[in-house]
Amino acid sequence: MAGSTSCYNPDTATCAVTSTTLNGLPAISLLNTVDGAPLTADQEMEAGLTCNGVSATLTQSLPRPCLASEFGSTLLSIPAPGTENDDHNPQRVAPRSLFDLSVGDDNLFHGDRYKWSLRFDVINLTNKVALYNRLSTFSGAHYVTPRTVSATLSFHF
User: Fold this and answer.
1) DSSP string of 1-58?
2) Residue 36 and residue 53: Cα distance in Å, rounded?
3) Residues 31-45: what's their mean pLDDT?
4) Could you tell me the CA-to-CA distances from 107 to 82, 104, 141 in Å, in that order?
5) Spatial distance between the Cα atoms of 112 and 37, rounded to a whole number of angstroms
6) Pairing outcome for strands 131-136 and 140-143
7) What is the pTM of this model?
8) Cβ atoms 115, 156 nearer than 8 A
9) Does a cis peptide bond (omega within 30 degrees of 0) precede residue 65?
C-alpha cells in the first residue's frame, strides 16, 4: 500500500489532509497524508507523480495544489477523485509483471566423477522500472532491480 500518497476524498481520514479546491474544482495539496508535511520534489519524483502530464524532477516540485483530474502517477495506483476508501480502495503501488529467465546444464560434459555446470540468469528481463515500497519508515523508497545478467561456471568434484 502507498497510504502516504496524496489523494482526493474529503470524506476519508487519509485523504482529508490533502483534499482542497482550486477555483472551485477538486484539487490535491501535495502533502504526506501521514504527517501533513509537504512532499519534497525528490519524494514526488520517486513516486512518479504527475500533474497535467508534467512529471516532478529531483529539484522541481509539481504545482501546488494540482487539480484532482490532472493528478496521477506512473508508479502508483491512485484512486479517482472521491473514490478513495481506506479499507476497500486505498492508494497502492501499481501492479506489475516481471519476468526472469534462467537456463543451464548441471553436467555440461557428461562426466561421471568430475562435473562442470553452466548457468545463465537474467533478472527483470524486460528492464521494467517499478516501485515496490514507498516512503518506508526505515529505508525510503525501493525499486525493482534493473535488468541484471549473470553467468555461473562451476566445477564439481
Assistant:
1) --TTS----TTSHHHHTTEEEETTEEEE--B-TTT-PBPPHHHHHHTTEEETTEEP-S
2) 24
3) 86
4) 60, 9, 42
5) 66
6) antiparallel
7) 0.78
8) yes
9) yes
